[in-house]
Amino acid sequence: MKEEKVESEYKYNEFKEKMKKDFFDDNAKRLLVPMVNMFFTFFVFNMVFCFFEYGKATPLVLADILFSMYLGSITYMFLLGIFGRTLATTIVYNVLACTLMFINKLKIMYVGEPIYFSDVKFLVNLVDLSKLAFGNMSFKTILVPLFPTFIMAVWTLLMIFLNWRYRSKLSVKSRVILLVATCIAFLVLAHPTRLFKEYMNENIYKIDDYEDFNSYVDNKSYYYYYGFASGMYGNYLNKFFFEPLDYDEEKVNEALNGANIKSTGEYGNPNIILWLSESFFDIQNLEGVEFYEDPIPNFHEYLKIGKPINVLSPSYGGASENVAFELLTGGNMKYFPNGYIPIMSLYDSEESSKIPSIVQELRNNKYKTSYIFGKDYYNSKKAYMNMGFDNYVDLSKEYGEPTDKIITEEVIKLLDKKDRQFITVASYEAHMPYNHNKYRDYDVLVKSSSFTIEEIETIKTYGEAIHRADEQLKVLYEYIQTIEEPTIIIFIPDHLPYLYTSNNKDIMKNYILREDGKENYFKKYNNKGVLLANYDVDFSKIPDYLGADQLLNTIVQQTEVELGPYYDYLYSNIDLYAGMNRFVLIEKDGDVFLEDKKSKKIEKVDYIRRDMQYKLFLSK
Questions:
Q1: Would you state the pLDDT for residue 417?
Q2: Which has the closest alpha carbon to 520: 441, 583, 474, 581?
């Protein structure tokens, strides 16, 4: 009897342990499967997006991955709170992901930009979407968005299969808790505070680590760098600006009302060509290299007959649109967060036409305004049209990688129309990369150098690129000498080149890092250009040194164009300081100071300009 009792107790305990194990395993799987779904669906989505758009994996760091998982998890839990069943939630959640993949690829195909939160109308209007997808597309074209969608569909089926086997149902209490918690989370994300945005920029988007030469150039690459979900939210977050802590609108209004500068009219109403020459730099200033001949002889000749100008750029090696922003609006990038690109976020609606713009001022004075791109990486047609341009041309649509020769021909066509023209050019000839096989024939050859073979090839290719840009400067200058209409050419680089090697070594550091402190910053951001004209113009009133935000304004102030009080205020401060970026400020005679060493008087003006930019550019 005793043995039977022991055996009975043993079997009971064995059965009990088995039940516990089966119960634990079953419930663990019921918990694990939804967790895998809600955490990793957006991660898989991002991997598919990156592969089909860039052919390589995402470069995400841990913070980006965790934030993307967080966004995915609160979305899943919100749906779980609504449906109360893991299977139904899984189906809806993953079908939404598939739909988003298809529509996102569709939008990229048509406009070159990914989905934004502001595209809700595009997402919900299924009738228009069907017309777009099936009415205007061939069968082969439809396959393009179907491929990445198919991969997401496979993931969806896997998740549905697992959830079918380990499906579960939530109590009403649990659903209410989930709905309340996720709604609070969405509210925090939808209405970010100042502290929240600062935390996100510092820890998720790491704007302090931003480098101009390695910047994203459009929202698609922004999504690539930060992850689709994280990038989508970052794009949304970028639209939020907060009033400066010590904002004083009264002083701003006082400054604007007190600025009343009468244009001299000395230059008349000339055609104005603002030529942003991509990465143009006198490579002979790079220590350790010698050429057989001067790569840019025309530029050096024009420095003697025209007006040499040193322009303080807000960027180095990239982010050309930020340079254009300063030139065309008078805004200064130092008042925006590091890494912010106004053209991508600030000019996305017709309301942005109310933002100050020299382009708009010129158009109001009967100028025809045109922007000619060699290649518009930023897909910025809408932004520049809102800024005030009548005409936008992206020559890469027709020529792929257009030379400066093609761009010059386009400029001449506009000048032949005899209208009063303001033409902005963003050239492409000297754009990176500088591979040794970029050109078939080379006129520029390196005579001697202390660099490696790879570095010499990079330098030679870059030298050939600026040589060809230099030739077209001569063509344009000689052309304007043949026309009667008074014309001014503002030929300036957008920024210094980023001459990198296969191991990402920046050859330009051999030029920049020759001095200490402020001199380093000045050499890194100073760009030498030239002002030219086909009529008698006294350029002596234009300082030798100017910030990009002051250059065009200063020249237009000498014409008959009447500018608004904002531009009068900027011009009134040139004698105090001529230019400033995040690191240095320059006076018009070339004296350089570290930005954090500015005088009390300049600091006062700096605060007014910051508040003025908030009032005129952001508060609207």
A1: 87
A2: 583
Distance CA 361, CA 338 (A): 28
Residues 539 and 302 sit within 8 Å (Cβ to Cβ)? no
Q: For tokens 């302090």, what's the residue?
A: 208
Distance of alpha carbon 38 from alpha carbon 173, whole angstroms: 21
Mean pLDDT, rounded, for 276-283: 93
What's the pTM? 0.76
Helices marked H in 493-587? 509-512, 518-525, 548-556, 565-572
Query: β-pairing, 271-277 with 421-426?
Result: parallel
Alpha helices in 400-540 (DSSP H): 404-415, 453-480, 509-512, 518-525
Measured CA to CA, the distance from residue 573 to residue 403 in angstroms comes to: 39
Average pLDDT over residues 243-253: 89
Whole-angstrom distance, CA of residue 102 vs CA of residue 100: 5
Backbone angles phi, psi at 520, to 5 degrees: -60, -50
Other Cβ atoms less than 10 A from the Cβ of 399: the count is 14
pLDDT of residue 449: 85
Question: 526-533 and 307-312 as β-strands: parallel, antiparallel, unpaired?
Answer: antiparallel
In whole angstroms, what is the distance from residue 152 CA to residue 478 CA?
A: 58
DSSP 617: I
Query: pLDDT tens for residues 445-458?
Result: 888 888 888 888 88
CA 395/CA 406 separation, integer angstroms: 8
Evaluate whether 458 touches 240 at the Cβ level (below 8 Å).
no
> Are 542 and 560 in contact, with CB atoms under 8 Å apart?
no
| Burial (Cβ within 10 Å: 0-12, 13-18, ≥19) of residue 179 | middle
Predicted local confidence at residue 21, as pLDDT:
45
Return the sign of the alpha-carbon dihedral for residues 417, 421, 424, 430. positive
**Residue 373 contacts residue 384 (beta carbons within 8 Å):** no
pLDDT at 164: 83
CB 426 within 8 A of CB 278: yes
Distances (CA, A) of 301 to 534, 552, 572: 15, 23, 32
The residue written with tokens 């200058």 in the block is 477
Task: Collapse the DSSP code of 599 into the 3-class scheme (helix H, G, I; strand E, B; otherwise coil) and give the result.
Answer: coil
180-217 confidence digits (pLDDT tens): 999 999 999 999 988 998 888 888 887 665 554 445 54
pLDDT band at 31 (very low <50, low <70, confident <90, very high): low
Average pLDDT over residues 55-84: 84
The Cα angle at residue 479 between residues 478 and 481, in degrees rounded to 5? 70
Residue 353 has pLDDT above 90, yes or no: no
Burial 235-259 (b: 16+ CB within 10 A, else e): bbbbeebeeeeebeeeebeebbeeb
The DSSP output letter for 388 is T
Quote the crossing angle between the two packed helices 194-203 and 228-237, to the nearest 10°.
140
Dig out the tokens for 305 from the structure: 């007959």
Cα dist. 67→203, 206, 223, 233, 244 in Å?
Answer: 10, 13, 13, 10, 28
Instruction: List, in order, residues 6 or more apart from 215 with CB less than 8 Å away.
Output: 318, 319, 339, 341
- According to DSSP, the β-strands at 526-533 and 487-493 are antiparallel
Asked whether the beta carbons of 527 and 310 are under 8 A apart, the reply is yes
Q: Quick one: how far is CA 332 from the chain centroid?
A: 15
Report which of 531, 522, 475, 458 is spatially closest to residue 496, judged by C-alpha positions: 522
CA distance 224 to 56: 10
Mean pLDDT of 410-427: 92
